[in-house]
Amino acid sequence: MFTSRPIGFVSSPYKDASQVPKGLGAKHEADGVLKILPEFEPGLADIEGFSHLIVLWEFDRSRGFELLGTPPSDNRPHGVFATRSPRRPNPIGLTTVELLRREGIELHVRGVDLLDGTPILDIKPYLSSIPDERLRRGWLAEAEARQR
């Protein structure tokens, strides 16, 4: 086991979970800033060359977990590991954002779905060799089809 520690915090327009777009058709287009702690600034070297970043973060306001739950995008229960629910055994979130620019220790991004002040655990450049036609969306694709 390890103990995580934040490398920074998010500045986001969302102050409450109810403000974050959820459900079918939800678009995450909000701008935000990943404010990295000064001691981690050397780790940002060369990040400007990437268009998108994967942000690992902590659901710091979530308590407890449920192994089955009904997400806002479907009326059927699904396993927590097949959803993006905040109520997880390990409260770790993952978001892909577009990097707009870097200003010192601040990464200006688009596509945040995090609450203001959320602790950032790690950042990785988005790299994928999986062609779009091979990606599957599981139950979410089925729920979208039922909505049509």
Q: What series of H and E elements makes up the topology? A: EEEEEEEEH
Strand line-up of the largest beta sheet: 1-2-7-6-3-8
Integer average pLDDT: 92
Structural class of the helix and strand makeup?
Answer: mainly beta
Number of helices: 1
Name the CATH homologous superfamily: YaeB-like
Largest sheet: 6 strands, antiparallel, barrel
Low-confidence stretches: none
Measured by DSSP, the beta-strand proportion falls in: 25-35%
Task: Give the terminus-to-terminus CA distance.
Answer: 45 Å
Quick description:
The chain is mainly β. The protein is built from one helix and eight strands, in the order E-E-E-E-E-E-E-E-H. The mean pLDDT is about 90.
